[in-house]
Each structure stands twice: as C-alpha cells, then as structure tokens.
User: Fold these one by one.
Assistant:
Number 1:
Amino acid sequence: MTTAIRPTAASWAIDPTHTDIAFAVRHMGLSTVRGRFDVVAGTIRTDDSGVPSEIRVELDTDSIVTGTADRDGHLRSADFFDAERHPKIVFESSSVRPKGGDRYEIVGDLEMHGVRNEVVLDAEIGEPIRDPFGLIRRAASGSTKINRKDWGLTWNQVLEAGALLVAEEVRITLDVQATQQD
C-alpha cells in the first residue's frame, strides 16, 4: 500500500533500478531504432511547494543498449558517443516552469560528446508517496527532441535514394523515480 505525502523542500536521489532514459531515431528512413542507457544517476532538489528547483542527471555513455551488440559498439566508438573520451552525458536544469496541473517545462543544459547545448523537456511530475518499505518516492516522465549534429554526432551515410542511414532528429523519453534523501 502507498500513502500520499505532502510535498516539501527536499533532496532526492534518482533510483536507477526504476528509471529509464531512452531514445529513438529513424534508420534508413524506414524504421525506428530504440535504445537506452542502463547506468543513470542523479539528484533533484525541490522547493517548499515540492516543485523541482535543481536537477542533475548523469548517464554513462558506455552503458548504451539497443539490443544489437555490433550497433552498441559502433555507438560507443569515436563515430558517435566516443565513450572512451566522453564517458558521461550530463543534464543540469536552469529553470522549471509550471504549465498547469502536474505539467512542467524544464530547461537546462545537456552536455554530450564534449558539447553543451540548451534543451527543453516537457515533463509530468507526480506527487510524493510513501512506499511499502517506508521510503518517500516521486516519479516523473518527460520528453524532448534534439538534433544530434548540434552535439557533434555527425557520422552518417547517404543511401542510394538520398535518405540518411541515421536521422539527425533524436527523440528522448525519460521515466524517472527518485527517493527522498532528507
């Protein structure tokens, strides 16, 4: 049984076992390839009304999983994430704007492949609950779209019909669970 909790100022740690950071990109203009990062960590700070005020998320680029070992290896290589030189993808929020109800616009910097650019996430943030083990938890889901070339991820091939092997637009989705730390 879960119990609703009144939101307050708090520090939260992202629970990596209940968090999914995923991406989707068109392949050959025909289908969509999906993947995720298995190693995620982060912290969230909420203000007195329980609204997130600071968010920091780190992903290990070496933990990318698409379901195909050869593709995962290529994505870790210098052609894409260059995991050896750039082991982390980091998001740090700069503002959180209410959009009504439980919807928020989260603006922040996404650092990937040694390049830092601003992104805007559309997010839905749930109310805190006490889980059956006594922990106070919150969950959020969100999405954004980026152009991978803006982060220097430019490897590609042009196919015979003129389509790109890998699309430039990448859709990112996240489902995050966090536990209160104080």
Note: The chain has one domain: 3-180.
Number 2:
Amino acid sequence: MSLRAPVGATKKRRVVGRGPGSGRGCTSGRGNKGQKSRSGFSQQVGFEGGQMPLARRIPKRGFKNKRFENAFQIVNIGDLKIFGNGETVDYDALLKQGMVNKKNSFVKLLGKGDLTKKLHVRVNRASKKAIDAVEKQGGSVEIIG
C-alpha cells in the first residue's frame, strides 16, 4: 500500500530565472528594480513604503491595564438546566460540566433563557436580571470576590 496525495492537492513549483527561453527569465516575474525585486525581501505588516504608517499617524487615547484585567466567562441562566434541583453551582461544577474552561476562574451569570429549578449559585459577577430569575425560583446568588 502506498500513500498518495489526492489529485490537485499538490502543485508543481514554478522554476524561475532560467534564461529568456523559459518565459520566466530576466527579472523572474518580480518586475524591474527596487526593494521588492531583491532577494531576501520581506515586507512587515503595515509597511507603507517608508511613509509614517496609519497606526502611528492616528492619535492614541485612553488607558487599559491589560495585565490586571479580569476576562469573565459568561454563563446564562438558561444553561443551568442541566443541574439538579437544590444543587450548588460554582466554578468547579461548571468546569466539570464543560461550561467554562481553565483559562480563568472568573464567571459572570447573565439572564438569558429560563430557569425552572431552585439553585444556589456562587459566581464572581451576576446581572440584576439573572439574580431576580434565580431568586424567583427560591434559589440564591452569592457573589464571591
């Protein structure tokens, strides 16, 4: 048995710079003179030919401290229907069900969907609508630091 790529998966490499008879001789399809025609040329992203790039021409405003930013993982109350009545829903329970990942442990509860069970929810943040929906079913929402 021999492995072979499907038809059309591989393309022959174009040989350039092998004389005028090849049709790709002389300048080898690079046009005439200049920086782009030289070997080893690679243009950086956003390079504008030496002109001041757009990203540097536009004024910068504001401040965002990305190093200490907390990115929250979103969980809606409609997603909590997989938990049993009276259960405690926290980060570990959500992680076990695959509803959040290990990237960070900050969870925010939002009010999209319907909740039909009494649950005790422990999250870092929660919207007013989500808190009202949980408490309406007789459950509780605990905001942890």
Note: The mean pLDDT is 91.
Number 3:
Amino acid sequence: MAQPPYLGVEPGAPISPKKRGIPAWLIAILVVVGFIFVLVASLFALGAYSYSKFLRAAKSAEAREMVGTMAKDAAAAYDRDMALCPSASNPVPIDINDIKGTKWMSAPSDWIVDKSSNSGFACLEFSMSDPQYYQYDYQSTGASAPGASFTAIAKGDLDGDGVQSLFTLEGRIVAGEVITVSPTVIETHPEE
C-alpha cells in the first residue's frame, strides 16, 4: 500500500522555507508586542482616570478659594461696619443648571443687584470676573447680635450628572469679633 502524499512533499525530503510556517522568533516578538500594547493601554486608561480626577480637584480649588474669600470679606465688613452683611438676594448664577458640567461667565450686575441697599455681595464687595464652575451664595442670620452668623456657600456639578458638590464656610460673632466656626471648608461630594 502506498503512503498518501504529505502536502506535495515526500516523507524524509527537506521542507522548503515557504512551507515551514511562521518562525518561532516571530511568534515570540508578536507575543511581546501584544503584551506591551496591553500594558500601554492599561497605563493610558489609568492615566486618563488620574488626569480627570486631577482636573476635578483643580476645579474644586476654585470653590474652596472663593468660599474662603467670602468669609474673609464678611469678617472685614464686620470690622468696618460692626455688623454682618445681610444675606445675598440670590445666588450667582441664580439657576444651578447654568453651571452643570460647564463654566459660566457672570456679569457685574449678577453680583451687585442693588448697590444702594448695600446687601449681600455688594456689602461684602465680592464678585468674580472670571468664568466659574460653581454657584455662589452668602447667607447671614443677623447683623450684630451676639451669636449672629454667616455661611459662605459654593455648589457645583462638575461632571453634569445631577449630583451636586457643596462647599461651606461658617462664621459667628463671638465677643464682638467674627470667628470662623469651621476652621476649614466643609466639603460634601467635592469632586462631583
């Protein structure tokens, strides 16, 4: 009985380079390249996540700084007038959806609604001329009575998912001086 042909090559005959298949060294290089590709893709994904987290943290620094500035302005206004500034008539921007996942540019008239009344932001002499990621508000419980207090507030939604971040700094009149109640800004969902 005759043996069947092996792909046109007789048993024991030398195999031509064209019929040998893929060399082992080439397979090894392809495996290494594939491994490097997976590693680089993983590092890129990690880097993108870290970068987006860094950006949210940098944006939330705006809220911390502005809330601290409002608190300092409230203390300075108390020293100047011996009374806390009245509450702001409205937050800026009025609608929090205006800053949902984006920056918002306020106008000077947004901060000083009625300069003659000297209330809220006008009394604090607080405004922003740069685009903002947060809605700012100032609330006061009284003018000069002992225990009167204020709260500087920033609300935001950096990623636009409807979950709001909140930054507050509170102050109170104690023995004729404004004392910051919370030594640091109180933060709720700071990277939202």
Note: The chain has three helices and five strands.
